[in-house]
From TrEMBL:
Residues 29-260 form the SET domain. It comes from Stomoxys calcitrans (Stable fly). GO terms for molecular function: N-methyltransferase activity; protein methyltransferase activity; S-adenosylmethionine-dependent methyltransferase activity. PANTHER family: SET AND MYND DOMAIN CONTAINING, ARTHROPOD-SPECIFIC, MEMBER 4, ISOFORM A, SET AND MYND DOMAIN CONTAINING, ARTHROPOD-SPECIFIC, MEMBER 9, ISOFORM A-RELATED. The keyword Methyltransferase applies. This is SET domain-containing protein. InterPro entries: SET_dom, SET_dom_sf, SET_SmydA-8. GO terms for biological process: methylation. CDD domains: SET_SMYD. Keywords: Methyltransferase, S-adenosyl-L-methionine, Transferase. It comes from the Eukaryota. The gene is 106091138.
Amino acid sequence: MVAPSSISTAELAEKINKHLGLKFEDKNSAWSVLDSPISGRGVFAARDIAPGEIILRDTALLAGPKASDASILNICVVCCALLQESDHEKIMCPKGCAMPVCNTCADSETHATECELLRHWKPKDGKNINFHCVRLISIVRCFFLGDLQRQLLYALQANSDKYYRAELQKAMAGFEQFPKDRKMLEYFYRTICIFNTNSFEGDCKVNGAEVRVRALFPLASLINHQCTPNADHYFENAQTIIITATRPIKQGEEIVTSYTKLLWSTLTRKMFLFMTKHFMCSCQRCLDPTENGTYLSALFCRAQGCKGIVIPVQTKTLQPDWRCTTCESVFPHSKMARYQDFALNTINNRINKGSVAEMITFINDMCPRFCPSSNYVLVEAKLNVIWRMSRPTTEEFNEDHLKCKERYKEEIVALLEKLGAGDCTLKKLITEEIL
Ligand SMILES: C[S@@+](CC[C@H](N)C(=O)[O-])C[C@H]1O[C@@H](n2cnc3c(N)ncnc32)[C@H](O)[C@@H]1O
Ligand SMILES: [Zn+2]
Ligand SMILES: [Zn+2]
Ligand SMILES: [Zn+2]
Ligand SMILES: [Zn+2]
């Protein structure tokens, strides 16, 4: 981990206030920035906060389209609007910076400076989108920040990772004359580390179309993770994030969000956090092998004749032993991991293939033969059915299908309830169908 610049927590809080003061007036601030018992700095409730209340609104230091792979590239790098043209050549900046831009942004002042810099580095291919280069645009924007915003950016935590270095090298390969100076490369690398450690990802509507964006916020970046969080986030627009309370929060309590999906099993969450955020979570939920009685990790017992379920017994390792809750047989992690992978692959291979009706039959009739109904992979499959049935489709559903959808919804809401997830975005999506 690269240590944040030597700025005290109080100084940082003051600078954040200034940054937000420029944009939002907040007379009844619900948050304060303090040192955290979880890790480093954190955000705390400055007063009691009710569920559903907006805790804070933060404005981005750096932002851009998600651009994690070639499939989601037709987004203007400036305003994040969806570009309707599928022909790459037609959506590329006419000036030759090799970025997709809309007609309005192509001539905008906002784009002019970054366009000039990118052209100075000489893109190798001005006609096709290179997603490594598009991903770099959010980083390049660190050159155009004001003093305050730059100080805030470099006060954030930066986790190092060889993949972040590879990210820079792949983007560099897209230009003939990318700066090779060591100091400059370290500057880019550090910014990429900060971006990956702290950025938020989310969907937001731009000109009526939903797009996926990634952005870095100085205050929201200080929010630590817990697997049963008391807050959630959404993007108001590509530059603004809102953090809301999902449960009542008492004055002085730390405000925490989840960096993972809520319904993942403990090992899946732990592995994801370790690989992408470089820490091992040891929150209450991670310490409870039953996960508040949800048994999201459960697999069937492999002992002959036993119909029980097995769950991981140690909570602090990524390779725990598993124990049957009925016959108490113990199985090594390697064996259960193979079994979990089998369930995951078998179910994921079906998702989005074939009709929803076929998926329902598979979930109800086939899956119970090899996977307990509480297992998170099966829960994810049910969520997938709910999403597919809630969006516009040409498929027709009979009464049984609709009943199944309602049952899946009730099951998932009950799971969220057991986890203590409160009024989280997922619950709102399921119950209010704001899709
Ligand atoms: C977005 S930052 C959160 C703010 C950070 N505490 C700071 O001082 O800047 C994410 C980093 O905080 C730390 N962190 C967040 N939640 C944690 C947790 N539950 N347990 C341990 N470390 C955590 C990890 O180092 C992680 O990479
Ligand atoms: Zn645009
Ligand atoms: Zn341009
Ligand atoms: Zn946890
Ligand atoms: Zn057993």
